Structure formats: structure tokens, C-alpha cells
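Design request, C-alpha cells follow.
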């Protein structure tokens, strides 16, 4: 009987994990990421703490899948998330926003520091080696950065500002960080 309870408990733990995290990359899924942002936004407002968000997209990811296949694309996504874990703090939260786009919550990070974090991350990703059989693949990311300011109290607005900055980075040539003009 004890084994049955242990099996059921393990099943529920796995179910809870799969409801919160992206199974391929191990980072928060979009729904759980939004929950975390809402909680951090409330904390930021309550205590007057800074908060920043990065939106990040893998440059030319479709070409990776087209040339090397979807398993190679999966390896690139996993390598990206591993690099994020190495570069970012434990309190920072990475979420898979969709496809090859990721959002990163930087609690207690002011607007002057967030672009430095984004640049450090962009540089580390650019130097990440991905081995595909006998070949080596490099990839880059574009990152948009936005921060909560004294008048910005809406999570959706900050995410939209970061997303617009991401598209500015892509229009400016990719493999770069752009900061939202808020």
C-alpha cells in the first residue's frame, strides 16, 4: 500500500511540474512565468523595489531547424536555457514565452543595471558551442529590455515595452540588446 501512495505522490509531483515548466527546456512555461511576474510586480510596488524584464528571441532560428532539423533546434533551445542558468542569478526567472522566444524576470534590478545583465547574457550565448554530431553550431539572440518606473504599474505594459525593444533589436540587425523608450 505504501508503494501505491508513493507512486501517486510522485505522479502528482510530475503533473505539477509539467503544469508549470516547459518539458524541453526546464524553464517556466508562459502561464507560470506570468504568475511569477504578477507576484514580483506586487512585491515591487509594495516595497518600492525595481523590476526589469527582458524579452529574448533566437536569431534566425527557423534556419537552424530548416538546415539542421528540429532535433538540432531542440538542442539549441536547451543550450540557451543552460547558458541562462549559468549567467543569471538564482532569483531571476526565465520563461519560455513561445517557440524560440523567452522572457526573463529580473527582480530588484534597476533600469541602469538590466541592460548590462542583458548584454552579459547576449555575449555568453553568442559564445555558446552547440555540438551537432561532428559539426559545431553557434547562434545569437536579440534582447529587448524594459523596467518598471515610478509611473508604470502594469505588467502587460512592461512586457509590451520589452517586446517592442526586442523588435527594435531585430530591426537594427539582430545579436544586440535594445532598451525600451518608456
Amino acid at each position: 500500500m505504501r508503494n501505491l501512495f508513493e507512486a501517486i505522490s510522485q505522479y502528482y509531483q510530475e503533473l505539477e511540474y509539467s503544469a508549470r515548466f516547459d518539458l524541453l527546456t526546464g524553464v517556466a512555461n508562459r502561464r507560470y512565468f506570468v504568475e511569477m511576474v504578477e507576484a514580483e510586480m506586487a512585491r515591487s510596488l509594495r516595497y518600492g523595489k525595481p523590476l526589469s524584464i527582458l524579452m529574448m528571441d533566437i536569431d534566425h532560428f527557423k534556419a537552424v531547424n530548416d538546415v539542421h532539423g528540429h532535433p538540432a533546434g531542440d538542442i539549441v533551445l536547451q543550450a540557451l536555457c543552460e547558458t541562462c542558468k549559468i549567467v543569471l542569478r538564482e532569483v531571476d526567472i526565465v520563461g519560455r514565452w513561445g517557440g524560440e522566444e523567452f522572457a526573463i524576470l529580473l527582480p530588484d534590478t534597476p533600469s541602469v543595471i538590466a541592460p548590462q545583465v542583458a548584454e552579459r547574457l547576449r555575449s555568453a550565448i553568442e559564445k555558446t558551442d552547440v555540438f551537432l554530431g561532428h559539426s559545431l553550431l553557434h547562434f545569437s539572440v536579440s534582447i529587448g529590455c524594459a523596467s518598471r518606473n515610478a509611473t508604470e504599474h502594469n505588467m502587460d505594459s512592461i512586457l509590451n515595452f520589452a517586446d517592442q525593444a526586442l523588435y527594435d533589436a531585430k530591426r537594427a540587425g539582430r545579436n544586440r540588446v535594445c532598451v525600451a523608450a518608456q
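Comment from the thread starter after seeing the answer: thanks! The two ends are 59 Å apart (CA to CA).
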